[in-house]
From TrEMBL:
The keyword Transcription applies. Residues 216-315 form the HTH araC/xylS-type domain. The keyword Transcription regulation applies. Keywords: DNA-binding, Transcription, Transcription regulation. InterPro entries: AraC_XylS_family_regulators (IPR050204), Homeodomain-like_sf (IPR009057), HTH_AraC (IPR018060). It comes from the Bacteria. Gene3D superfamilies: Homeodomain-like. This is Helix-turn-helix domain-containing protein. Pfam families: HTH_18 (PF12833). It comes from Bradyrhizobium septentrionale.
Amino acid sequence: MYTWSTEQVDPRDRFDYWREVRAKGLFGVTAELEPEQRRDFFGEFSLRKLGDAGLVELRASPYRVERRAADIADASSDSLCIYQQLGGGGWFGGARLDEFAVRDGMFATSYSDLPYRTVPLHDDGFHLRIIKIPVAGIIPPGAELGELVPRPVPDQTALRTLLESCFRDLVEGSDAATADAPPTVQALAHIALIDRGIMRPKSRLAQQALRTGHLSLARRLIRRHLSNAALSPRLIAGLLGISVRHLHILFEETEMSFSETVTVLRLARSRRLLRETPGQTIAEVAFACGFESLATFYRLLNASESMTPGDYRARLA
């Protein structure tokens, strides 16, 4: 993880450094701000490599951004960009682009080497994440991204939900999990290309991406409903909008079945509660994690740790 902030630069030089070194050199854009506002400028970003892709989180006070033809010529990146707006909102426009605004939590996609303009909608400035994924290896034969101008991902669609889940997997992943990132990055890219009509939903690569997205979301839904003792394949399949058989097929391609995944996650949560909530009784921990009975909790934790829940907690005291 690489991080940088304008706090490392003299206030008189912060915006000029950001404009010339960071905006042009790193992001390949032209940054503009009135001279009288430059002394108060603040910007920071982090960069994490995900295979050949890069995940950037950027926060900055307001300024104008434009990716011009000259910027593209100087810093072509030939990448698919997936943006997530965090806080505030942003406006996008350009000669070939229908104007649109993105609000907190929304996603947008584009091809890196097309011109655009953007400004924050509010005084709190920019706060967004961007994943840049090199085009090589992610687009189907014969496909072109030259018309993939910035466009928001429609809310309340199944594809947006899958895209968000895969995006969160990458954002939440630790550096130790970076080796597992490329398949998720590819699935994220292909879901975005399905949404933009570049990839046929029934193609082999698209179907693999949708399976990865459904599996990501299934695991997220399991965690969300973990305390529910009635958690079942039927419940999760219904929330995903797929059949129970399809759900089981998703887990058959992994190291753990649906039921094994639920058990592992419940045990992980129970260990955390035993460590962090000494005021809870063993029974309260068991039922907070969705175990159907205290006897089941004792049996499963003992099989995992070779000790009772009480002994596990005492060992940590």
